Each structure stands twice: as C-alpha cells, then as structure tokens.
Amino acid sequence: MERITRTDDRVHRPAGPWTPTVHRLLAHLHEQGFVAAPEPIALGDVLETVSFVPGVAGDYPWTEDVAGEAALVTSARLLRQYHDAAASYPRDPDADVWSQAERAPVETIVHGDFAPYNCVYDGIAAVGLIDFDTAHPGPRVWDVASAVYRFAPFTTGQVEGATAPHLADRLARAAEFCRAYGLDDRSRGVLVQTMTASLVAMVTTIETEAAAGNPKFTSDLEHGHADLYRADVAWIEQHADDIAAAVA
Ligand SMILES: Nc1ncnc2c1ncn2[C@@H]1O[C@H](COP(=O)(O)OP(=O)(O)O)[C@@H](O)[C@H]1O
Ligand SMILES: [Mg+2]
In which domain, by residue range, is 110 found? Predict the structure, then answer.
C-alpha cells in the first residue's frame, strides 16, 4: 500500500504521536481564516485523514510555473500568512507533542519543511500548504531560511527545472523571497546562520534516525541526502557574505 493515499477529496497519511497536536494546529489555522492548509478530518492509531488541497504540489522537476518569479513571491506571501495565523495557536504544554524540539525565540508555530514540494500551486500561484508533520514552536526565520535554501536554491546538487543557474540569479531570488515575506531586519541578520543550522539539524536527524532503523531516514541516507546537506553547508559558508549582503 502507498504510504499516502487519496480518496476523492480526502488524503490518508501515517499518523505519529504529534498528529493530534498538528490537527489542533490545522483547526486553529482554519478558525483564523487560513484555508490554504488541509482541514483535519479524522485521526486513527495509524492513519490520519485530512482534506485534499486542490492544485499541484511543486515536486521536482519544477515546472516552468513553479520555477518562475510569481510562484516565488506567492509562496513567500503564503508563508507569511501561515505564520501570522499560527502565531495565535493556543499552546498547551501539557497536551502539545511536536515531532521537533522547540527553538528559541518562539514567535509562531513554524512549518518545519517549507519548500516548493510542500506548497500546492494553481498555475503560477501558491494556493496551498501541506505536510505539517515537522511543525513546531520557533522563530519565523527558521522557516524563511530553509525556504530560501529550497527556493533560491542554494544547493550544490542539481535542481531539475530550476531556472536560476547563476549565483546572481539565486541571490536575487533569495532577496525577493525575503521582500515578499516582509522579513524584519533582525531576522535578515541571522538568516545565513539559521540556514546552515537547519541543514546541520537535518543531517543529525537523518543520521540518528537511520542508526535507529527508521526506514524513511535509512533511505534518505542511502540516497546521499546527509552528504548533500553537508556539502551545501560548506558551500553556503563559502558564499555567506554574498548571501548576507543580498538579503540585508
Ligand atoms: N492534503 C493534501 N492535499 C493535496 N495533496 C496532498 C495532501 N497531502 C499530501 N498530498 C500529496 O502527497 C504528496 C506527499 O505528501 P506529503 O504530505 O508532502 O508527505 P511526504 O512529503 O512526507 O511524502 C504531496 O507532494 C502531495 O502531492
Ligand atoms: Mg512533503
């Protein structure tokens, strides 16, 4: 059986200890009028059910639409709207269980994996946000930094469909994302170090979970994801001044 299945307008996904908390977050988002996220429908021991968000996920290879500037700008605005809606989530330390450790300073509930592949597009416009398994309390820049890494993109790996092969183009896309989000100066000042910190955190998660026998992360390790993220940290550190200047 597929890990994630769809029947009509519903999506069934594996549930984890954090899923009840994520369902409370999704319900809160809808109460706040942020309807781009799935609606929570049902929760079982092994599966959760959420509503299908109409559109096309920005999977690799990127389509021309997803690689374009309008998708970049609307994705950044969508992240801003999500953060603003999630910021008033009524946290309950006795009940909330997140898959990731909280990060200071807590400004909102970050998505934890904001990337084109977790956005849903209607043509050139980002209209949906899915896959909240990695959501957790943290600073807005945590999502913005990892989004900039994915959208610019700042990777040494090949991104099929990417239309910004030159560093100058990637720097311009990074700046455009921050502008469209409306990122504050303090967050801009820590963006590069936050980007490398999030990559280091992913390497640690992949290696720890693979060592514990988690099949998803064993597969990530076998596909070289940890090595790629390590190489990307080195590349980002090499270009740190350029990136910091572009997003300043
Ligand atoms: N609520 C949803 N609405 C629309 N599509 C979804 C939804 N949930 C999952 N999908 C589809 O399934 C794919 C994988 O789901 P996702 O939740 O991102 O899990 P994972 O990244 O862990 O595989 C997505 O890229 C998307 O195409
Ligand atoms: Mg996903």
Answer: 56-247
Ligand nearest to the CA of 57: 1
Return averaged pLDDT per consecutive 10 residues of the chain, 248 residues in all. Answer: 88 97 98 98 96 97 96 99 98 97 97 98 98 98 98 94 89 98 98 98 96 94 97 98 98
Q: Do both 128 and 202 map to the same domain? A: yes
Kindly report the protein residue whose alpha carbon is nearest to atom 27 of ligand 1.
57
C-alpha closest to that of 116 among 158, 60, 73: 60
Q: Report the DSSP pairing between strands 40-43 and 56-57.
A: unpaired
Residue 174's nearest CA partner among 119, 236, 120 is 236
Any residues with Cβ below 6 Å from ligand 1, and which? 4, 11, 13, 38, 50, 52-53, 57, 59, 117-118, 120, 130-131
23 alpha carbon – ligand 1 mean position (Å): 15
